Amino acid sequence: MATLAINPRLFENLQIAETHRATGDFGQMDDAAIMLELRAGNMAGFDFLIQKYRKPIVHFMYRMVHNQAVAEELAQEVFLRVYRSRETYRAEARFSTWLYRIATNLGVNYARDTRHERTASTVYLDEADSETGTTPDVADSTPDVEAKLLRQERLNAIRQHVLALPERQRMAVLMHKYEGMDYKQIGDVLKLSESATKSLLFRAYQTLRDKLKAFV
Question: What range(s) does the RNA polymerase sigma factor 70 region 4 type domain occupy (predicted)?
Answer without folding.
Answer: 157-208
